[in-house]
């Protein structure tokens, strides 16, 4: 009996002692940051954050700004500005200015990846304008309008390739693929929009794809779900891809080494001047061939562009590593990738031509 | 005799002197020369009509001729008459409403005649009051043991149904009946149950629920280790499965064992509905247990330690609802949980109609006022109300109580250690459950030890095609309940 009581007392004491190790963050006594933007101002790094303000604004976003030599120090500055504890565990968007991205994001990436408070499903994006202006545009906006939701919606239903902190770190540290992330900008109404897709070589921004190239990039990644403009007999049409699949096939045995992309698209046509296919059903094959040829040319141009920039954002190296036993990254990117022959096969299946005028 | 037996009556004279002190004791003497007849009875226990309309006229008519007991035994119109000499046995029967006849010419012996009025003080309505079912029989056990035996024998109409009686309670002398099916129930179980009951040294046994605690394998547990039910169909089912039932005079609840954890979440209704529907409601009931146990602790853990686990879309309503609440989440939860327990406890003590009103007043007025006064948040109010509701889905009231009580240590652990505290609490709870036994049988069967054969009627209620065997952990002498395509009683027809 005495031993049992002793055990119970020890258990209770242990529980209470361990309880002291817990760091509580009671939800209504903290300030929850949701979006962060970093800019470079000379030697200093400035950070602007958006947080939902529940006391005065019923949850619409408010802004804080700080500066320091590195992101951690900026957070300490925010702490000094706030009557409540600052918690950045719910940050879902990290925006880096193009200047920071061009000079290298190693410092930012290091401090982010070492922080267990941040999840991996966080949007990393570069901004064409200053990151501060992107974050400031969120002032008095709803929580729903953060860049994270904007990009996520476009990843699932639009032409933006899938990317987040997890993919960025994977690409950053892996051999055989270069990291990439969306590029954001502000329009005249101060609304955030996606203006392209930023390709990195290690930690430095090298190239920003425009919107059409971004859609083609997603197509090469294997998940095409886009609307593609093309011309047929001098007229403009839009191919709406319902579903599609891209297969990449590396050919390590050829000289030079070659990579083949087989793109299969199924979709419908919308034209600007009536339902052409319905009037001319015999032309459907010619129509499809026109689309195939134009998409193929664009895809080849994109691949050549990345090749010329020595960027392997699609993970060509990874594909070759998967089929070559003694694959060496340095040798591959020095000797093979610059001379690689890209082949693209596009097969388009037009199921209908959409409604008429 | 039990160790604490307070009565030591050495002679009939001593007994009569003792009982004569009671106001409800009647002693009538009929004089006929040397042949004096004395009738002693507790008027509160006996049927007075039988005394004055049958017994007294019968005795007066034969007064002159009585020389020995055979004259009376052969002519008086009563079902239970016996000659007794031992004062202790006489005392026991006197307490139960027997008339004690003494003859002056036979001073060492008495005749005991059963004229007890067993229906006195018992309700006529035997609808189940706590274990209500929409489908299926509504009749339940009552406080009268004879009626309960009658009800059970109506359901299990075979001569193998055995009722073995014994008396428990050094003061209450409560009649207990152990019920089982001879040739089906494992005799070891019957013996174990009888041994445990015989080993009881208790003064007053009011209810089978007391017996359950006294004979339990482990007393330091919040879990009920024996099923107690007022439903006849439930008891007839467990007896036919190979369990042993114990009926207690004065209690409308019949105890059965060995029970498993799952038994407490099974409703007889499951068997009256198609197996898919029955299984669905059973799963809902089991999920309710988890919800009831963990909803409030999770609320505390997430809002105190793991706010990052809240989806961003949910952050907004949670923040807005708890913005002006000055208390920490654990204080909020304790305040509301205690309020709910107070309402439940008050509702249970009040008459049904007032209880309902109290529920509405408590639920709506106090809840709404608490939110208005910023003592608690809307979301927590919903969580606590839902978890209270979920706890009431457990068919056995005792288990529902256990689940409600277990929430409190989990709430404290989650406040101290967050999600880790809940994990610790759940682990301890699971370890405790795995150690429990009911009549030496593991409480967590068929999950631990794992018994695949018994899964057909545990988490889900499989179709009758798949529940043809009895539960194996009971080691019944007859394993087969029925053949899927033969609707015959296997006790009579099985080889």
Automatic annotation (TrEMBL), chain A:
GO terms for cellular component: membrane. Pfam families: Spore_GerAC (PF05504), Spore_GerAC_N (PF25198). It is a lipid-anchor. GO terms for biological process: spore germination. Residues 195-354 form the Spore germination GerAC-like C-terminal domain. Its main location: membrane. Keywords: Germination, Lipoprotein, Membrane, Palmitate, Signal. Gene3D superfamilies: Nutrient germinant receptor protein C, domain 3. Residues 26-185 form the Spore germination protein N-terminal domain. It is found in: Membrane. Signal peptide: none annotated. Belongs to the GerABKC lipoprotein family. This is Ger(X)C family spore germination protein. It comes from Paenibacillus sacheonensis.
From TrEMBL, chain B:
The keyword Secreted does not apply. Keywords: Membrane, Transmembrane, Transmembrane helix. The chain crosses the membrane at residues 283-302, 357-390, 410-434. InterPro entries: Spore_Ger, UPF0353/GerABKA_families. One of its GO terms (biological process) is spore germination. GO terms for cellular component: membrane. The keyword Transmembrane applies. PANTHER family: LEUCINE ZIPPER PROTEIN 4 (PTHR22550:SF5), SPORE GERMINATION PROTEIN (PTHR22550). Belongs to the GerABKA family. This is Spore germination protein.
């Amino acid at each position: 009996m005495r031993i049992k009581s002793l055990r119970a007392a020890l258990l209770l004491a242990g529980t209470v002692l361990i309880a002291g190790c817990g760091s509580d963050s009671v939800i209504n006594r903290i300030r929850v940051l949701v979006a962060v933007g970093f800019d470079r101002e000379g030697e200093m790094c400035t950070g602007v954050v958006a947080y939902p303000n529940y006391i005065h604004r019923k949850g619409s976003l408010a802004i804080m700004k700080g500066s320091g030599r590195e992101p951690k120090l900026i957070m300490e500055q925010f702490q000094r500005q706030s009557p409540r504890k600052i918690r950045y565990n719910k940050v879902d968007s990290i925006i880096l200015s193009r200047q920071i991205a061009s000079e290298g994001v190693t410092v930012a990436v290091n401090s982010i990846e070492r922080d267990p408070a941040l999840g991996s499903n966080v949007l990393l994006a570069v901004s064409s304008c200053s990151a501060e202006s992107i974050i400031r545009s969120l002032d008095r906006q709803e929580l729903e309008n953060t860049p994270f939701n904007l990009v996520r919606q476009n990843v699932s239903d639009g032409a933006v390739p899938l990317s987040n902190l997890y993919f960025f770190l994977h690409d950053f540290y892996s051999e055989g693929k270069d990291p990439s992330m969306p590029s954001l900008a502000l329009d005249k109404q101060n609304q955030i929009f996606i203006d392209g897709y930023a390709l990195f070589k290690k930690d430095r921004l090298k190239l920003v794809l425009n919107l059409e190239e971004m859609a083609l990039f997603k197509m090469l990644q294997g998940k095409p779900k886009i609307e593609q403009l093309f011309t047929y007999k001098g007229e403009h049409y839009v191919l709406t891809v319902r579903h599609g699949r891209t297969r990449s096939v590396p050919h390590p045995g050829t000289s030079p080494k070659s990579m083949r992309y087989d793109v299969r698209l199924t979709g419908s046509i919308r034209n600007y001047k009536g339902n052409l296919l319905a009037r001319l059903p015999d032309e459907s094959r010619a129509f499809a061939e026109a689309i195939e040829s134009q998409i193929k040319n664009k895809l080849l141009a994109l691949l050549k562009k990345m090749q010329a920039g020595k960027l392997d954002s699609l993970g060509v190296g990874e594909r070759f590593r998967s089929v070559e036993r003694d694959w060496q990254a340095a040798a591959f990117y020095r000797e093979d990738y610059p001379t690689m022959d890209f082949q693209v096969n596009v097969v388009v299946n037009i199921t209908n031509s959409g409604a008429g005028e | 005799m039990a160790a604490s037996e307070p009565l030591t009556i050495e002679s009939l004279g001593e007994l009569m002197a003792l009982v004569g002190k009671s106001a409800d004791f009647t002693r009538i003497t009929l004089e006929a020369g040397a042949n004096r007849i004395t009738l002693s009875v507790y008027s509160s226990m006996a049927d007075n009509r039988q005394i004055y309309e049958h017994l007294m006229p019968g005795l007066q008519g034969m007064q002159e001729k009585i020389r020995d007991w055979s004259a009376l035994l052969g002519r008086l119109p009563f079902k239970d008459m016996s000659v007794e000499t031992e004062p202790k046995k006489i005392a026991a029967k006197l307490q139960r409403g027997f008339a004690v006849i003494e003859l002056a010419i036979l001073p060492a012996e008495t005749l005991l005649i059963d004229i007890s009025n067993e229906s006195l003080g018992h309700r006529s309505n035997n609808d189940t009051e706590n274990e209500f079912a929409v489908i299926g029989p509504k009749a339940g056990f009552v406080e009268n043991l004879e009626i309960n035996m009658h009800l059970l024998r109506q359901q299990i109409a075979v001569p193998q149904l055995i009722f073995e009686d014994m008396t428990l309670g050094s003061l209450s002398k409560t009649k207990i009946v152990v019920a089982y099916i001879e040739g089906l129930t494992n005799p070891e179980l019957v013996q174990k149950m009888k041994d445990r009951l015989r080993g009881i040294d208790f003064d007053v046994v009011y209810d089978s629920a007391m017996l359950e605690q006294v004979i339990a394998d482990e007393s330091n547990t919040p879990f009920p280790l024996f099923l107690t039910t007022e439903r006849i169909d439930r008891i007839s089912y467990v007896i036919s499965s190979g369990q042993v039932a114990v009926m207690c005079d004065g209690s409308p609840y019949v105890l059965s064992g060995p029970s498993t954890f799952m038994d407490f979440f099974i409703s007889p209704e499951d068997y009256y509905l198609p197996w898919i529907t029955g299984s669905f409601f059973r799963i809902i009931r089991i999920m309710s247990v988890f919800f009831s146990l963990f909803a409030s602790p999770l609320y505390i853990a997430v809002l105190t330690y793991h706010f990052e686990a809240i989806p961003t879309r949910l952050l907004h309503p949670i923040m807005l609802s708890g913005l002006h609440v000055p208390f920490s989440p654990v204080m909020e939860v304790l305040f509301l949980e205690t309020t709910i327990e107070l309402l439940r406890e008050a509702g249970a003590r009040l008459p049904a109609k007032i209880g309902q009103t109290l529920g509405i007043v408590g639920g709506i007025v106090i809840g709404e006022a608490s939110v208005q006064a910023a003592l608690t948040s809307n979301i927590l109010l919903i969580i606590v109300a839902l978890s209270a509701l979920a706890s009431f889905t457990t068919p056995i009231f005792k288990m529902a109580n256990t689940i409600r009580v277990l929430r409190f240590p989990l709430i404290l652990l989650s406040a101290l250690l967050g999600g880790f505290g809940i994990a610790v609490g759940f682990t301890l709870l699971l370890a405790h459950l795995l150690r429990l036994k009911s009549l030496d049988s593991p409480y967590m069967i068929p999950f631990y030890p794992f018994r695949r054969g018994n899964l057909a009627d545990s988490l889900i209620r499989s179709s009758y095609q798949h529940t043809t065997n009895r539960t194996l952990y009971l080691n019944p002498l007859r394993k087969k309940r029925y053949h899927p395509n033969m609707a015959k009683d296997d006790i009579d027809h099985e080889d």
